[in-house]
Amino acid sequence: MRSNALVKDEGMRVLAERLGLVDAERFVTLLRREPFDYTEWRRDLYKDVPLDAFLKNAHEHRVYS
Fold it and tell me: Is residue 14 in a domain?
């Protein structure tokens, strides 16, 4: 298992690559500023994605170590 520091570093890198540095920082700030229920957010995040599409995407992005 990776350390919390490594997970945070990789998460920020991925956000910055996808959103750009400014919007990645903005995203993190928004999460910290607003009341946020992570469990509810995760439960609803992929509710409209068909299971076969979700599994295909997960397989394509799997990291082999």
Answer: yes
Q: Output the 3-class SS for the chain.
A: CCCHHHHHHHHHHHHHHHHCHHHHHHHHHHHHHCCCCHHHHHHHHCCCCCHHHHHHHHHHCCCCC
- Where do we find the tokens 């607003």? 34
Based on the structure, what is the number of domains in the chain? 1
Q: How many Cα neighbours within 13 Å face the side chain of 48?
A: 1
Range of the domain at 40: 4-60
Report mean pLDDT in 10-residue bins for the chain, 65 residues: 90 94 92 82 86 88 73
Is 18 a member of any domain?
A: yes
Would you state the structure tokens that stand for residue 35, as one six-digit string?
Answer: 């009341």
